[in-house]
């Protein structure tokens, strides 16, 4: 039985990538050792690091005025690192569209003033506030968004732009490389690797070089962005296996034809699943139609008890990790880059039969 893993993260990876990792795990390039055993400063790992960075630059069309680095601590550490390095006691605008943007705003308050320029919290994050409603700060230190809200199931479509002269900061943890993005519209982009690009253990940080000069002198060395950019992300031992897997996944994305082709696939998958949801009264989704995430499709059956039954029976059919986040309940199908259309088709087929039997 084919297993389709709909987990929100760590998430499904391409089968082809997993097969390569399996083949190389115990003996990487005839070294006699696995990549997890080899020195991060040795001749085997250095090309992996270079390839991972080069692939990211190529796939996202990143210009030379940006640095690309890998930082441990995942997305949560970036909640603090960003204001530590860039806020300097000033005011930053945060658009509160979900649990993670809310947490990021709370961390930033330790280092300056946070203006919640817009929020959909009162309606349980069921939409992204229209930009015409945003109450932005003139000459803010930066403007912060979460491009895709993994728990709430919403996504900026299209992505906003910050006012002239204000760096736009984006947490792209759950939609990185799922669609074409103009990096030059941003001051800093970061993303936990564990959803679209590899296993857990690190975040990608893409930062415009001029912003590196903002870091105050009292920021600890390990929490300074220039520590990573000046040391090729190897000031301390990097998460070498995570970066190795990232290199393999980005090799795979290049083979598919790049991000533009991947985006077409993701649109097709999301359109098919939402199309089915809209065609039935048995299932419902709370997210405003114009803000629905292509990555995390949240939905419900008629009751909490039916949700639990749905998840249990789906799991028995090889459709795993469909339970919604513990904070909101319901169901959630995460259909990241590595989820094939066959997985979406299998889910829809099961949903149809489940509704027929239980409706």
User: Helical element count?
Assistant: 9
Task: Give the tally of β-strands.
Answer: 13
Number of domains: 2
Largest pleated sheet:
7 strands, mixed
Strand order of the largest sheet: 2-10-9-8-5-3-4
How does this structure look, described?
With 359 residues, the protein is an alpha/beta fold. It folds into 2 domains: 16-256, Type I PLP-dependent aspartate aminotransferase-like (Major domain) (Aspartate Aminotransferase, domain 2); 258-358, Aspartate Aminotransferase, domain 1 (Alpha-Beta Complex), CATH 3.90.1150.10. Helix content is 34%, strand content 15%. The protein is built from 9 helices and 13 strands. It has helices at residues 15-24, 45-60, 74-86, 99-108, 225-230, 240-256, 259-278, 304-316, 341-358; strands spanning 4-5, 66-71, 91-96, 113-119, 142-146, 148-149, 154-155, 168-171, 188-192, 203-208, 296-299, 319-320, 331-334. The chain has a 7-stranded mixed β-sheet, sandwiched between helices. Helix 2 packs across helix 6 and helix 3 runs parallel beside helix 4 (99-108).
Spell out the blueprint of helices and strands.
Blueprint: E1 4-5, H1 15-24, H2 45-60, E2 66-71, H3 74-86, E3 91-96, H4 99-108, E4 113-119, E5 142-146, E6 148-149, E7 154-155, E8 168-171, E9 188-192, E10 203-208, H5 225-230, H6 240-256, H7 259-278, E11 296-299, H8 304-316, E12 319-320, E13 331-334, H9 341-358
Parallel strand pairs: 1-12, 3-4, 3-5, 5-8, 8-9
Antiparallel strand pairs: 2-10, 6-7, 9-10, 11-13
List keywords for this structure.
Aspartate Aminotransferase, domain 2; two-stranded parallel sheet; 13 strands; 9 helices; 359 residues; alpha/beta; globular; Aspartate Aminotransferase, domain 1
């Amino acid at each position: 039985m084919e297993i389709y893993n709909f987990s929100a993260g760590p998430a499904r990876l391409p089968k082809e990538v997993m097969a390569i990792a399996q083949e190389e795990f115990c003996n990487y390039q005839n070294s006699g050792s696995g990549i997890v055993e080899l020195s991060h400063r040795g001749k085997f790992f250095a090309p992996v690091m270079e390839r991972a960075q080069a692939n990211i630059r190529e796939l996202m069309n990143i210009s030379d005025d940006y640095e690309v680095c890998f930082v441990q601590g995942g997305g949560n550490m970036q909640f603090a690192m960003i204001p530590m390095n860039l806020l300097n006691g000033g005011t930053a605008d945060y658009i509160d569209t979900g649990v993670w943007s809310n947490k990021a705003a709370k961390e930033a308050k330790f280092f300056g003033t946070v203006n919640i320029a817009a929020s959909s919290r009162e309606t349980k994050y069921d939409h992204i506030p229209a930009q015409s409603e945003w109450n932005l700060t003139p000459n803010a230190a930066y403007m912060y968004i979460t491009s895709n809200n993994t728990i709430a199931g919403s996504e900026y479509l299209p992505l906003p732009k910050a006012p002239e002269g204000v760096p736009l900061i984006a947490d792209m943890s759950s939609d990185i490389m799922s669609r074409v993005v103009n990096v030059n519209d941003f001051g800093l982009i970061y993303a936990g690797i564990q959803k679209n690009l590899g296993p857990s253990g690190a975040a990608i940080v893409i930062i415009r070089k001029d912003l590196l000069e903002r870091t105050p002198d009292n920021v600890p060395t390990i929490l300074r962005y220039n520590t990573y950019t000046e040391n090729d992300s190897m000031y301390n031992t990097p998460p070498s296996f995570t970066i190795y897997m990232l290199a393999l996944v980005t090799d795979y994305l290049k083979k598919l034809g790049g991000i533009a082709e991947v985006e077409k696939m993701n649109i097709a998958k999301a359109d098919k699943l939402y199309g089915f949801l809209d065609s039935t009264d048995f299932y419902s989704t709370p997210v405003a139609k114009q803000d629905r995430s292509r990555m995390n499709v949240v939905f419900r059956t008629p009751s909490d008890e039916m949700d639990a039954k749905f998840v249990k029976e789906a799991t028995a059919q090889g459709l795993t990790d469909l339970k919604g986040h513990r904070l909101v309940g319901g169901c959630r199908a995460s259909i990241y880059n590595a989820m094939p259309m066959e997985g979406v088709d299998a889910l829809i087929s099961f949903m149809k039969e489940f509704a027929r039997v239980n409706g």
